[in-house]
Design goal:
The protein is flat. The protein starts with a helix and ends in a 25-residue tail after the last helix. The protein has one domain: Four Helix Bundle (Hemerythrin (Met), subunit A), CATH 1.20.120.910. The protein is built from four helices and no strands. Helix content is about 60%, strand content about 0%. α1 packs antiparallel against α2. It is mainly α and about 150 residues long. It binds zinc ion (ZN). Zinc ion binds next to α4.
């Protein structure tokens, strides 16, 4: 069980992350709207623009994905279950939550999920999985999920 002070700290981290991701999502959206107005005006740079555009959209998808995770964690925090592993119900340490604020798994289940994820990548299915928000406590992150 987390203390009130610990919960406050995690809430602060999650809310900061929520604000940061909201801003990034809005930027990506503004870019896409701007892009639509410009279609057909400059055919020379079109292929390059398409490339930038698809990169922006991939980023946008990732921000949305992370925003959903942050929102879910805030709900788990309010329900007093942010430190409960979704898989096995064991407690997640405060230290792990601070290092990985969006994690919903204890370290054992996370390692299990990573093994399954690695197997999925090898068979070409992939997926973002339990994406982290940076920082580092020695855990591996899914490929391409880091900033
Ligand atoms: Zn677990």
């Amino acid at each position: 069980m987390l203390s009130q002070k610990e919960k406050n700290e995690i809430r602060r981290v999650l809310e900061d992350e929520y604000k940061r991701l909201s801003r990034t999502s809005q930027n990506a959206l503004a870019y896409s709207m701007n892009h639509e107005r410009n279609i057909g005006r400059d055919s020379i740079d079109e292929s390059m623009e398409e490339e930038i555009f698809s990169t922006e959209m991939r980023l946008h998808d990732r921000e949305k994905f992370l925003l959903n995770k942050v929102t879910k964690q805030l709900a788990r925090l309010e329900a007093n279950e942010i430190d409960v592993c979704e898989e096995c119900g064991e407690s997640i340490s405060f230290r792990r939550l601070m290092a990985r604020p969006v994690t919903t798994l204890c370290i054992d289940c996370k390692e299990q999920a990573e093994r399954e994820e690695a197997a999925a990548v090898q068979t070409g299915r992939g997926g973002l999985g339990d994406t982290d928000m940076g920082g580092g406590d020695g855990e591996k992150s899914p490929a391409g999920a880091e900033d």
